[in-house]
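EI: anyone free to look at a 271-residue chain?
SC: sure, send it
EI:
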Amino acid sequence: MYKKTFINLCLIFSTLSISVLEINLKNCSEASDKDPVLYSDDFKWGETKAEILAREKKLYNSNKRLEKRAYVNNEGEIKLPLNALFGEEKFATVAKKYVESVKAHIEKALKRNYVDSIIFSDMGHQHFFIPQKFYDEELSKIPVKDKDLLYEKMLAHSELKILYHTAEQMKMVDENKKILDDRHTQWRFYTRNIVGDNKGLGTIDLVHQPDHSHNTSHSYEKGYKYLGAGLYLSANKNGCFAYDHLGEKRYFDINIVGLNPSGNSGDTDYF
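SC: here you go
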């Protein structure tokens, strides 16, 4: 009996692949006002795969990074700057497991060819599906002034689901809203809604929205509440967090204030 139980446990754990987070500490300090910033102007709608890959290469090798990006403080905590509310700037402490999960989603999505690049043009922003019970009993009771606490609780919840609308700026349909007659484009169209776990396992579901011209889904399973206020991610050679692709170690950053037009400073709101 004990031998059988041991074998069963070994089989269970051999099927789990928990992502381990690697932080590039020398590039993971708090952003300064002098750092080059990635703006919405750096992106363009309606691009082809080749154009998006060329844009990613250019931006990855540049010094432009996400504004108010997450960083690691002296205590080893991952801190996420939020926009000032009532004149007070807030910082949420991000659960390591959440960032491990994002890393695992990136690696899995690239490996399965669900995405081509880790910038806003493709896999560069998130939304959330929150367990309705958790939202009703805990998150909904948190006052707006404590939005840092809200994000801390939400990003630490093991049953949180993370939605990525990929191929965000890729040209996929013609002027009549018909999918382009191209195999890669059609593949990207039907796989563009990725829903990942928050357990560091890299588990991915695909959801489909047949009544939307660009297959943009906002629904998941029963018992989950959609929240459009997600985080942004962008690959950069100087990024804070590492991921692996085709045997190469690459880096990415995350933030919550999103991408602002050049000349503007993070006034995006999320709730």
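EI: The radius of gyration is 19 Å.
SC: 👍
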